[in-house]
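Need a sequence for this fold. Nothing fancy.
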């Protein structure tokens, strides 16, 4: 996923003779968006999965069984591993992360102990996590691969895992030295090894198969 460098965007605006009026229009749009965002915080409920993306409130449809199965199986491995080793906090489905402009409810996310130690009871908005998972569906896959990809990268989320529950393939992106996502793994077999969650690894097939998930969980709980 490639985006235009910020300096190039600024240069393009400054080359225009109406640069000031363009900036004024942008400021006006963003001010109106900020008001909608505050109202969004007031209106959101536990019943719906909703996100605020570039000024638009996006409401998600119920997920397919394959999506829910993958979410449960991966959470089973990650949640138990993180709790056992006291590595931080795992958020699932309705944990809303609030970034500079947008608010998302990732399918699964992980916050290191350093971030999680500041969380409080009753908290409903959370900072950028260290590791985030999006499970593709017909209604979300475009945003997962475009605006979210760019936003997660820009906000320094160190690892981004995209899972296709139908094709049973995952893609692991990791920030490189230039703070850009590098595709380090794309597969439906083999082992996924996280660099961010200390020593966390699992057989990829364990998030698509219940028996293999149980076997992987047994290993996690015994080591």
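Here you go.
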């Amino acid at each position: 996923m490639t985006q235009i460098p910020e300096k190039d965007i600024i240069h393009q605006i400054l080359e225009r003779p109406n640069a000031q009026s363009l900036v004024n229009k942008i400021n006006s749009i963003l001010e109106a968006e900020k008001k909608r965002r505050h109202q969004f915080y007031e209106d959101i409920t536990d019943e719906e999965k909703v996100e605020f993306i570039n000024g638009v409130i996006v409401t998600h449809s119920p997920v397919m069984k394959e999506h829910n199965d993958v979410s449960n199986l991966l959470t089973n491995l990650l949640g138990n591993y993180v709790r056992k080793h006291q590595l931080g906090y795992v958020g699932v489905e309705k944990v809303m992360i609030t970034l500079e402009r947008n608010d998302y409810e990732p399918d699964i996310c992980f916050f290191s102990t350093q971030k999680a130690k500041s969380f409080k009871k009753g908290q409903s908005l959370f900072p950028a996590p260290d590791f985030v998972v999006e499970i593709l569906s017909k209604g979300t896959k475009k945003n997962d691969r475009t605006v979210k990809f760019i936003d997660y990268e820009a906000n320094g989320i160190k690892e981004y895992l995209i899972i296709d529950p139908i094709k049973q393939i995952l893609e692991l992106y990791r920030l490189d030295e230039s703070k850009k996502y590098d595709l380090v793994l794309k597969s439906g077999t083999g082992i996924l090894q996280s660099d961010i969650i200390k020593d966390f690894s699992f057989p990829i097939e364990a998030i698509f198969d219940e028996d293999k998930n149980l076997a992987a969980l047994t290993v996690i709980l015994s080591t």
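For context: The chain has a mean pLDDT of 94.
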